[in-house]
Write a structure and sequence with these properties.
heterodimer, A: Rossmann fold, Arc Repressor Mutant, subunit A, 2 domains, 3-stranded antiparallel sheet, 14 helices, B: alpha/beta, 5-stranded parallel sheet, 4-stranded mixed sheet
């Protein structure tokens, strides 16, 4: 029995199957299915196929209790990307600027240390994690909850193209499968299955990211949660995970330790004296330009100049008029 | 005699331009009647009734003959009530009640009331300028319009009542003396910057905007002083020069917005249309085009509050005036060009619900809603803002701060720096050029963003009284670039 026939059958009937069903319809379909022609069609569309039984199939994903029949892949990276050490970074779609910053930074730092970051191409945390990897010039994996030929959400079409330039997009769904709400939890099991470590950056109660964390825990993978403000809804999911025993993530080194890796040494940057003063304040917590002016006694012009210096040096980021220091305290 | 003809000269407004219009009255024997020809609109046709009552009220004689009034050139559409006085005078001259040659060196403009009084009309300054150019040294106009007409250098003849005009033209009455109401004195700005507490960065950006004439976008949650700040920009701009004052007055006069006691606009106009404004209201329009808000804000400030709530076509229509400083409105009958060199200050929230940038509130906007909100502001439009400042909600400590600097010292600094900018283009130091190259790579900065940063840096250097743009000026300028959350670079 061909696994490809199984995937094609699932696409044809709009269902989710990982094992050959006993129904007659499938037997009829499998008998008529022309695997060579189908593969040729995939090749033409630039889509690769890795069957579950193929040696290239990621072993970690193979180990979960319901691995997909196979994976459709698109992208310039070699298939060995799927066998490298992977970390999932997932979280809320409508995230805060804090969450976005952490996700991007994790993407950048983990990729910089040589890990492959997996996420779901969704808005918010997922997208930021992918972008962080691309910033560091690394390769990232995006797992789709729809047919491999789709870029969903449409707003991330350009991001998906950039991911494919150096990494891969993968899906268990054959071309033509529409995105549907029930497919995303299934997609999350693949994200969790592909990764040795799952990091949840921001999640509300009953968020999709928590489903990923649950899958990861079930399969005995390490789960990290980024602590958030206890007053924010966006942190209730992650803080609950911490209460349940997930490891708190306070620096990318926490994750690198799991793999026995050491992060790239940050290059020391030379900053002007007012920039140093401002950075020292920012390490105490995020602040608006005016608060910083009051705390440091600098005039608005000098302060603006110092803040740009910090941004250019990669020491601070701005969002919604609020500046934050750009590294997790080590 | 079977027929007589008399003629009065006046002008019609086409946008801000004027066209010479000859008002001819033709009286002939036949059944008494009164017709106005020459593409007169409704208000103009109704002149029949006003002129008839006005002549009766002035105790003059209404000629019981067949009257035809022609407004020449006949192909030009005539609008409004400004032709009442010339029509009445032509009829009176044709019927011999005033000497016909007395009209030769007078232009006339004004609307008649039923009791014969003369009412003011809009655009007198432009009409007076046109009359002077046409070689007519005197203008008969409503008494309260005289100071405005005098601004054009014409000799106004103030007319309170049709009977006065007739007496004057018969040589029985000297023209009433008129008093110039305001000299060239700028009024004290009503709104002062000292009303605003905290928001040091936004104040600084306002000062830079005033100096370099940059457009400014203020973004932040509601209640952070965005509108307050925007409305205080005219107060720190240098006063209008005499030439600019005339330009502004001409536009406001055509729009019928001049105060009778202050015919010359001496302070920079501040216009803040509501976000429901239509395209025509913003850039001008109508059958006989009228200036829109952008032209009324000429040489002044246009404040667009709730910028993202404006209709998309209205926002896009702003691009031409922002680029060229004029609005040209094409109509079947011709084209009207209005000057529109204004400074734009826009204020908006960072998201539809307004909670973004507010530590005390949680933004509940869905990603779709957020991206629809951002899509509305096209990049082309955001590119017109040299300065973008996020104004997060200040904490209590900042609101308790003493009042900020008043407008006066700021205006003084702005004036000094503006002179410096006018005199010479700033040099660029090597450090600044290097920093700009680095920023283009790191931030990332688009080509337009780069040009904007350069312009703002030069303004900042001028404010610092430096002859060369240093790295610190450029890095400050970069702090006011559009943030990525507005989807621009």
């Amino acid at each position: 029995m061909s696994e490809l026939a199984l995937a094609a059958f699932a696409a044809e009937t709009g269902s989710h199957v990982v094992r050959a069903p006993r129904e007659r319809a499938f037997r009829v379909f499998a008998r008529r299915f022309d695997e060579a022609a189908y593969l040729a069609g995939l090749r033409e569309a630039g889509v690769g196929w890795i069957a579950r039984s193929a040696p290239e199939f990621p072993p970690l994903l193979h180990a979960i209790h319901d691995p997909p029949a196979g994976l459709f892949v698109r992208g310039e990276a070699g298939l060995d990307l799927l066998r490298r050490a992977t970390v999932a970074v997932v979280g809320a779609r409508s995230c805060s600027s804090y969450g976005a910053q952490v996700a991007r930074m994790l993407g950048r730092e983990l990729a910089g240390a040589g890990l492959v970051v997996v996420s779901g191409l969704a808005r918010g945390i997922d997208g930021e994690a992918h972008r962080g990897v691309l910033e560091a010039g690394g390769a990232t994996l995006a797992v789709l909850g729809c047919g491999i030929d789709r870029d969903y959400p449409a707003a991330h079409r350009e991001l998906a193209a950039r991911i494919r330039a150096t990494g891969l997009t993968v899906s268990e769904y054959a071309p033509g499968v529409e995105p549907a709400p029930w497919r995303f939890p299934a997609r999350n099991r693949i994200i969790a299955g592909l990764s040795a470590v799952a990091i949840v950056v921001e999640a509300r109660d009953r968020s999709g990211a928590l489903i990923t964390a649950d899958f990861a825990l079930e399969e005995g993978r390490e789960v990290f949660a980024v602590p958030g403000e206890i007053t924010s809804d966006l942190s209730s999911g992650t803080n609950d995970l911490l209460k349940l025993g997930a490891s708190p993530l306070t620096a990318s080194a926490d994750v690198l330790d799991v793999f026995g890796l050491v992060g790239a040494e940050a290059e020391p940057v030379e900053l002007g004296s007012s920039a140093e003063t401002v950075l020292a304040r920012l390490r105490d917590g995020p602040a608006s330009a005016d608060e910083l002016a009051r705390l440091t006694g600098l005039d608005a012009g000098t302060l603006a100049s110092a803040l740009t210096e910090l941004e250019l040096a990669g020491c601070a980021v701005a969002g919604g008029g609020v500046y934050r220091a750009n590294s997790i305290a080590t | 005699m079977a027929w007589v003809l008399a003629r009065t000269v006046t002008h019609a407004l086409v946008g801000l331009d004027t066209r010479r219009v000859e008002v001819e009255a033709h009286l002939e024997n036949g059944l008494p009647g009164f017709a106005i020809v020459g593409l007169a609109d409704r208000a103009c046709q109704e002149a029949k009734h006003r002129v008839r009552s006005g002549i009766a009220s002035a105790e003059l004689e209404w000629p019981m003959r067949r009257i035809t009034v022609n407004l020449a050139p006949a192909a030009l559409r005539k609008e409004g009530s400004a032709f009442d006085l010339p029509i009445a005078l032509s009829i009176l001259a044709a019927s011999g009640q005033i000497p016909r040659d007395s009209l030769a060196e007078h232009a006339a403009v004004g609307e008649l009331a039923l009791d014969g009084r003369l009412r003011p009309v809009g655009g007198v300054l432009a009409l007076a300028e046109a009359a002077l150019e046409a070689g007519l040294p005197r203008l008969l106009c409503a008494a309260c319009s005289s100071p405005e007409a005098a601004l054009a250098g014409i000799e106004p003849v103030p007319v309170r009542h049709l009977a006065d005009a007739v007496a004057y033209l018969r040589g029985e009455l000297d023209p009433e003396p008129w008093v110039p109401r305001n000299g060239h004195l700028a009024e004290a700005p009503a709104l002062d910057l000292s009303d605003l507490r905290g928001q040091e960065r936004a104040r600084r950006a306002l000062e830079i905007a005033a100096t370099g004439g940059h457009n400014l976008l203020l973004a932040g949650p509601p209640g952070t002083g965005k509108t307050m700040l925007a409305r205080r920009l005219p107060g720190i701009l240098p006063p209008l020069s005499p030439g600019e004052a005339i330009e502004v007055t001409r536009i406001h006069s055509v729009a019928g917005m001049l105060a009778a006691d202050r015919p010359l606009v001496t302070s920079r106009p501040l216009r803040s249309p509501h976000y429901s404004a239509s395209v025509a209201a913003l850039v001008g329009g109508g059958p006989g085009p009228k200036p829109g808000e952008v032209s009324l804000a000429h040489r002044g400030v246009l404040v667009l509050d709730e910028f993202a709530e404006f209709q998309r076509p209205a926002l896009e229509a702003l691009r031409q005036p922002l680029e060229d400083g004029v609005v040209s409105i094409a109509r079947v009958g011709g084209r009207a060009v209005f000057p529109a060199r204004f400074q734009l200050v826009a204020a908006m929230n960072l998201c539809p619900c307004g909670a973004r940038g507010d530590p005390a509130a949680d933004c509940k906007c869905s990603p779709q809603r957020l991206s629809a909100f951002r899509d509305k502001l096209s990049r082309a439009l955001l590119d017109r803002f040299d300065l973008v400042v996020a104004m997060p909600r200040p904490r209590a400590a900042e609101l308790a701060a003493p009042p900020g600097e008043a407008s006066d010292p700021v205006r003084h600094r702005v004036a000094v720096a503006r002179e410096r900018l006018d005199v010479a283009r700033a040099e660029w130091t090597k450090e600044a050029t290097e920093l700009l190259d680095r920023a283009v790579e790191r931030l990332p900065l688009s080509g337009r963003g780069r040009a904007r940063a350069r312009r703002v840096a030069e303004t900042i250097a001028a404010l610092a009284s430096e002859s060369a743009v240093g790295a610190e000026h450029l890095s400050e300028a970069l702090a006011y670039r559009s943030p990525t959350e507005l989807g621009a670079s």
